[in-house]
Amino acid sequence: MSLEFFGRLHKELSITGSALYEVVLSISERVNRKTQIIRLHWHASGVLQRIDAVTAEVGRQVVDHVDRPFSNQNQPDSALDTTVSRAAARVQELKRSLTQIDGQIRELKLEAIHEDSLRLQHDLTVRSAKIERLTVTRHAAAVGQAISAMPRLSSVHIASVLRGPFLLAPSEGLIFRTDDIVVLIGVESELDRLVTWFTSQRTVNAATTTSA
What we know:
- The chain is α+β, with helices and mostly antiparallel strands.
- The protein has helices spanning 2-66, 78-125, 188-199, 205-211, and strands spanning 129-135, 157-163, 166-168, 181-187.
- Helix content is 62%, strand content 11%.
- Strand 2 and strand 3 (166-168) form a beta hairpin.
- The chain is elongated and about 80 Å long.
């Protein structure tokens, strides 16, 4: 009996240790990613300062050239043209570097978003739930209707409504329009019953009435 107990205890401790290792690994990856993002932001700040320094220097040289006595104005401007051209080339180079840094920051942020999305998806899946992204079609029953008119299903909630560049608060009086993007969250079976209200003229009213 004692051997069986110790065997079970060892197994549980092994599982707990593995879970703890995964948690620590996940946290360390997040910290490392955030550290990289902070470093890239500092790098970008340094590049912007160098761009400011280059433009300030070429501006100073142009002002010095303009302020020369008239007797010196007959001298060729080739030296100033060369300086301006070099400064422009240097600024373009720094801007390309800035674009690369911005791309790296975006990639790291997308990795973080993807990781959070997978974790959320897992949390929903084990509860038989999901997130649904629906585009309101032209002849859908939802067009011209307020959120309050949406068929009521116990687990389904509107997370957000996206209209063009705007993120709209899902208030009861909000009227759905064609091409609105509706983000729903709820139990999978109930979400599936609600899809046609947003995407087809075949509404779920009949199904809802029958179930009632």
